[in-house]
């Protein structure tokens, strides 16, 4: 990268925190992107400065939510793109500190464990700067069904090496923290639990907002006339089970799925379930308007959540914050979050189709009670303000 040019005029007393691993802010979709958006938006302490790496097509800088954002140009090379991005973003952050010796105790905060085989080299540079390496291990990426066996082996090794070299692992799920401490006990990892967050505010859109009424009209539905799913169209989110069970039910409502594009998997599921020509199941266009998406959530008859891999899932928190009744796959990560505020289903005895019909028989009072419990789960443990404050304490320690 060439000779280091010392910026002698630069001086700061702030703790510099370099956030690497999200695609950047402002956020559109994505857990880490939404996390970074809110971490910077809710920042209270004047004693720290966030730097956020941004995956981009050109190298440049800008400021957003008071954070210094730096674009990192990454070639389109398929699955390895994210690994190259993390390495380049980390190298840029380290160089930034090397050129500014007045920066003391910088924090390098890496989200997800993608660059484990390379981290030892960079950890030496971080130590030389007097800095620390913090990692959010995310969920079990090596369990995702979309990966081949060699790729899964890489993710597992990468996780192991990231935990080995991290000064602290910040886990957004208690279950993930338990797993890290048990799986990597030989490294005696320093872990802490800080949850993910959600926004409890109501949509700013009125019931007659044109964007909302046009969305309802486009999919031939009405408020509380549809079940909703929002999430990436990947196997471990169990869209096939949700669609199959919904079609088995006798509900006269629609199932609307707002998701990412995955034509191959969509075709695979349709060959078995034949739902694309059904007017009961709609795979809708992506919604990037946050207030519109919130309004859609608020007016769903119920939200269906089938995610089974990873820790605290952002879409579940957002559903609890906005939708009264939530039908949730009963795995430990989801139960940790929703507790008694959701109706649970599983892949064995408690079929989703049966749960759908039970929920349709609920009284308005019981539905409202679920809504209150859901909002309480968020206000008790998952507000962005409290999460941002906890992170600041860790970064400033």
Count of discrete alpha- or pi-helical segments spanning 4 or more residues: 14
Cα-to-Cα separation, first versus last residue:
32 Å
Classify the secondary structure makeup into a structural class. alpha/beta
Radius of gyration: 22 Å
Please, could you describe this protein's structure?
The protein is 41% helix and 18% strand. The strands form 2 sheets. An 8-stranded mixed β-sheet has the order 3-4-2-1-5-6-7-8, with helices on both faces. Strands 11-10-9-12-13-14 form a 6-stranded parallel β-sheet, sandwiched between helices. Helix 2 packs parallel to helix 3, helix 3 runs parallel beside helix 4 and helix 7 packs across helix 12. It is built from 14 helices and 14 strands. It is α/β, with parallel strands linked by helices.
Brief account:
The chain is 41% helix and 18% strand.
Helix and strand topology:
Layout: E1 15-20, H1 31-41, E2 48-56, E3 61-64, E4 67-73, H2 81-98, E5 107-111, H3 116-128, E6 132-136, H4 149-165, E7 168-171, H5 174-183, E8 191-193, H6 210-218, E9 226-231, H7 239-248, E10 254-259, H8 263-273, E11 281-284, H9 290-298, E12 302-305, H10 314-322, E13 326-329, H11 332-338, E14 343-345, H12 352-360, H13 364-381, H14 384-396
Parallel strand pairs: 1-2, 1-5, 2-4, 5-6, 6-7, 7-8, 9-10, 9-12, 10-11, 12-13, 13-14
Antiparallel strand pairs: 3-4
Helix pairs in contact: 2-3, 3-4, 7-12, 10-13
């Amino acid at each position: 990268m060439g000779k280091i040019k010392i910026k002698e005029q630069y001086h700061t007393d702030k703790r510099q925190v370099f956030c690497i691993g999200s695609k950047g802010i402002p956020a559109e979709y994505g857990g880490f992107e939404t996390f970074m958006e809110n971490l910077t938006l809710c920042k209270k302490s004047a004693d720290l400065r966030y730097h956020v790496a941004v995956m981009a097509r050109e190298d440049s800088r800008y400021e957003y939510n008071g954070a210094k954002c730096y674009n990192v140009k990454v070639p389109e090379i398929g699955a390895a793109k994210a690994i190259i991005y993390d390495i380049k973003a980390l190298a840029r952050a380290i160089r930034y500190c090397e050129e500014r010796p007045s920066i003391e105790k910088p924090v390098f905060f890496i989200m997800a464990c993608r660059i484990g085989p390379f981290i030892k080299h960079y950890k030496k540079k971080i130590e030389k700067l007097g800095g620390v390496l913090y990692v959010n291990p995310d969920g079990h990426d090596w369990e995702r069904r979309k990966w081949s066996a060699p790729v899964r082996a890489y993710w597992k090794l990468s996780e192991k090496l990231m935990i080995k070299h991290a000064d602290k692992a910040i886990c957004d799920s208690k279950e993930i923290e338990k797993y890290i401490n048990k799986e990597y006990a030989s490294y005696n990892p320093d872990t802490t639990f800080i949850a993910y967050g959600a926004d409890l505010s109501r949509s700013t859109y009125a019931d007659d907002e044109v964007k909302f009424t046009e969305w309802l009209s486009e999919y031939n539905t009405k408020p509380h006339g549809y079940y909703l799913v929002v999430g990436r169209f990947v196997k471990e989110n169990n869209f096939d089970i949700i669609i199959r069970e919904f079609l088995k039910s006798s509900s006269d409502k629609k199932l609307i799925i707002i998701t990412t594009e995955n034509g191959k998997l969509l075709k695979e599921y349709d060959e078995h379930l034949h739902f694309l020509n059904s007017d009961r199941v709609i795979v809708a266009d992506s919604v990037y308007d946050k207030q519109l998406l919130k309004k859609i959530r608020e007016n769903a008859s119920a939200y269906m959540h089938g995610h089974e891999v990873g820790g605290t899932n952002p879409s579940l928190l957002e559903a609890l914050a906005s939708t009264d009744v939530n039908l949730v796959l009963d795995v430990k990560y989801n139960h940790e979050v929703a507790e008694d505020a959701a109706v649970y289903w599983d892949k064995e005895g408690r079929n989703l189709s049966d749960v759908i019909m039970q929920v349709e028989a609920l009284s308005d009072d019981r539905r409202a009670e679920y809504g209150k419990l859901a909002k309480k789960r968020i206000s008790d443990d998952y507000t962005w303000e409290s999460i941002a404050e906890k992170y600041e304490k860790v970064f400033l320690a």
